[in-house]
Amino acid sequence: MLYFCVNQASFVKKDVAIFAQKYDVKVCDFYHTNKKYTPILFLKQFWFLLVNIWGTKIVVCQFAGYHSFMPTLVARLFNIPSLIVAGGMDCVSFPSLRYGNFHKQLLGAFTRMSFYLCTHISPVHESLLKRNDTYYGDDNFKQGILHYCPNIRAQIKTIYNGYDAAAWPKPHQNRKPNSFITVAATLDNPVRMILKGADMVFDVARLLPDYSFTVIGFMGNRKPDWPANVTVLPFTPADELARLFGEHEFYLQLSISEGFPNALSEAMLCGCIPIVSEVASMSFIVGDAGFVLTQRNVSMLKVLLEDAVRQDKVFLSKAVRNRIEQNFPISKRVKGLLDLTEEMLHPNKEKTA
């Protein structure tokens, strides 16, 4: 198996480990911090394919984009089945935030061609295929792969993210009252602040001075106009993150765009009661064990938080962990991915059995 990704993030390593249970996996990343190096990365990828395509049985791309075009094209030319695992950014366009693959003309073209070239697509949630987005009113109402690529012929199978509950500590009751935490990377970027809803956290904190908020994901210095009841921390490793989750009652995920957010599910495993925006998979993930903000409105968020702190928090803390354990165990994703690749390699196996 040849596996292509932008970078080797934790969720990428998790999927690679799953595939490695059955295949000899060779990984090629497409990581860069400067766009001017993109041609060099294409050359690197071309050489990787030239050396490794011979004898390859299957090609997998984590997300669609520049990095998925050449692998899916070569796989098509060599009659090798190819899979794109769609995750979020590769399924949307938000022009006002300059976010999403389909917002950018060239990246959108590479993304679109990749989806048309591949034989299989596995989104992490059905909402990445097609949805009407009503939470954020400044941009496109319709989102999803099938909206931007309406004539796709690839076979589609949704496989949710999965989690090892044993890796995250069970909920305890020794938490700071009326405490909220949120996590996102590179929040020093003003657009990322809005995209991940961190700006909403600062705004609502000013309206609720008796509540405490922790925002993880800043690398710069604290700004003087930030509310005193907001603690700002840099991005932290998983073990430290688990400890911080365990100290807070609620987890906030107020994003404008998501796929199937790992931090949300991991916080729930630690007993944080989720409060999420009605975007993509998030209301589905929390079910009836959390709270959903239907519009990007700070006044509505304030009312929602005030309602949340009045609920039976001990009961909900246990319920949210159970929801992830029972509905999204890592075993389901393992079976889903390995069954899918088996079907890709032997499409007529069931028909002839």
TrEMBL record:
Any GO BP annotation: lipopolysaccharide biosynthetic process
Top-level taxon of origin: Bacteria
Glycosyl transferase family domain segment(s): 227-312
Xref: InterPro entries: Glyco_trans_1
GO terms of molecular function: glycosyltransferase activity
Keywords in alphabetical order: Transferase
Gene3D superfamilies according to UniProt: Glycogen Phosphorylase B
Annotated protein name in UniProt: Glycosyl transferases group 1
Organism whose genome encodes this protein: Flexibacter flexilis DSM 6793
Species classification: Bacteria, Pseudomonadati, Bacteroidota, Cytophagia, Cytophagales
